[in-house]
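A quick aside before the break. I want you to see a complete sequence-to-structure record at least once, exactly as it would be stored in a machine-readable document. Don't worry about memorizing anything.
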Amino acid sequence: MGLLPPNVEGRGTDVQTLSSGHLYFEQVSDMLGTIGHWGVAAVVCLAVSDLTFAEGSWAEQLIDTKKLDFGVVATGSETSALVKVRNTTTSPVHISSVSTACACAQAAPPSTNLLQPGEEATIAVTLNTRQFSKKRDTSVTIFFDSPELASVQIPISAYIRTDVVFDPGIVRFGSVEFGAGAQVTVRIAYAGRPDWKIMDVRIGSEDLSADLKEIGREGGLVSYELTMKLSATARPQRLRDLIHLITDDAANPRVPLMVEGTVVPDISVTPETVQIRALSPGETTTVRVVIRGRKPFLIEDIDCEKLSDCFTVKLGSKPNMLHVVDIEFHAPEKSGKFSEQMVVKISDREEPIRFQVSGLIN
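That is the input. The structure line, written in tokens, reads:
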């Protein structure tokens, strides 16, 4: 091992690689007696260096998740977590594949495989709580083939308890129109202590509320019905949250349950971000936006709080499902880039619509 340079010699993490490299050194020495030992050693060092690089040193910096710990979850629950991959390099990064070491966890394809500098991808990792139970320790591995071959392995741990079962395993509201609200009912079954109880439901979102009702208790079998409600005042958003059932189980009192849904806006603005061309101070230009609703509505006003004197808008006087609005912009005297929010006030709608406007004054 004395032929290996100091930066490789003594690495206890790759004994097999160094041993195979030594064997390779001997074989090449026998075949090519004219090549000096140090030249062959350099080849071995390069092979070791390449293998070490393939273990993912650069790629680890793209992923901030070091471990996925799902904690204690119920049988039947659709428990998942998102792994984010952000390209912090100056080159395009390509995710070639994603795999898990056990069928007890499943990884979805990345939201996008090719990441330009600054772009981000997400990978959903889901536990299989219907076919597996109790303690589960596995991992998910993300493979890269550009700008270099590399892989990053993320440990996964969970305990799937068999005494609590959810049906369905997730509160899935689906797509809900703004202002409509929604509700989903989940049955909770417990097998164990005859006096087992759910004491509380902990919710982190103000848009959610819960109604818990005990519907059966016979021997060690206990049944509850949990009705989750999505408020009609919930703003347009993609909702993804965990609620926790608080039980009187001293060892594992908290049982998580996933909540998902999307509140779809009743009124939308196209484009969502209006880009104004570069202007000189005092110059004027006109941009157009299309505001569309599911039913006829009346626009009362469109304005910008920070640049209120810069915009002039002509609005119709009748409700319509589609409004094509021309907005005249008068460039202020102050030069530089700007990015501000436009506020659209709708008749009989408490919450205004907002869109972004940006540009450059030079």
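Two observations worth writing down. The chain is about 10% helix and 55% strand. Residues 12-53 form one domain. We'll return to this after the break.
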